[in-house]
Amino acid sequence: xxxxxxxxxxxxxxxxxQAIEVPIYRRALGVRPLVAFGxxxxxxxxxxxxxxxxxxxxYVAAIHADPRFVxxxxxxxxxxxxxxxxxxxxxxxxxxxxxxxxxxxxxxWAIAANAVSSLLGQALRAATGWP
Length: 131
What we know:
By secondary structure, the chain is an all-alpha fold. It is 85% helix and 0% strand.
């Protein structure tokens, strides 16, 4: 994939994530638009640019430790999803907790918002190949 396409894919993914998660956070948590926007503005670049190589490094280390720990394509992808979305949920919940939302509500709605955006993103990728 060329750099221009990679940037375009990231841009589409970022806009879609914000279009999905900001209204969820606004309605569920009653936060201002910029506060809602800030949550995934913090996590999205890390999930997109850092987590794939972190997951690859963890996976390779696990295989070196135990060669039986070999995952198929789906298992590898799901492992990355658990790491990346788990990170996003934890950070976004902490962000809203620091903004005055109770930990239980912040965590519950971070799970919900990230589940919706992740599932819709995967459906879009399956249907169109993008982002």
